[in-house]
Amino acid sequence: NEYHTMLEEKKNRERELASEIDRYVLEKFKDYRKTFMKYAISFLGDNNKVDLQLVGETDESLLRFILNGSERESEDSLSESQRIFVDMAYRFSILEFFHKDSYYISETPDSTLDYFFESNAVNTFSYFIDSGNTLFLSANARNSRLIDLLLESYKNECVIINLINISNVAQNELEDITNLKLYKFLEN
After folding, report:
1. Which whole number is the average pLDDT over 85-95?
2. Among 57, 79, 126, 182, which has the minimal tally of Cβ within 10 Å of its Cβ?
3. From CA 67, how far away is CA 44, in angstroms rounded?
């Protein structure tokens, strides 16, 4: 009987500790969610309703992404641009939430980005940069409003490594490349 009482006390203490951990995880998730929402809304726009929820039991907790009242269960339920930037919202918010002065390396998603979302993409990148982080982007030789807007916003703070001058392919196509806005920016 004494051992049974001790066992019950230990089980109760275990449940209390599990409940305390659940509350702590939920509070931390709420803080993380705020950071995620900043990035997700910066790309998707204020006119969209975005939510991120923690669901499931503690051992099997998952995130649920909801856009305009509809749970997006897979990446296939988003456009290609939305997939890229929701993924970046997750990554940027994790980096910002868990690290200070972090960096992110990415290809510029300008070839898949809808024209109407380019300024939103700049907002997303700007939130990351303005939070004290460093962004490394590779840009293909093309006219891109995304690149132009980023360069305009951070012209005094960015470092550009111009690979055009050492590329054999670029040298063969130099006449076409010199007409690109990016090339003209690099020459100034």
Report:
1. 93
2. 57
3. 9
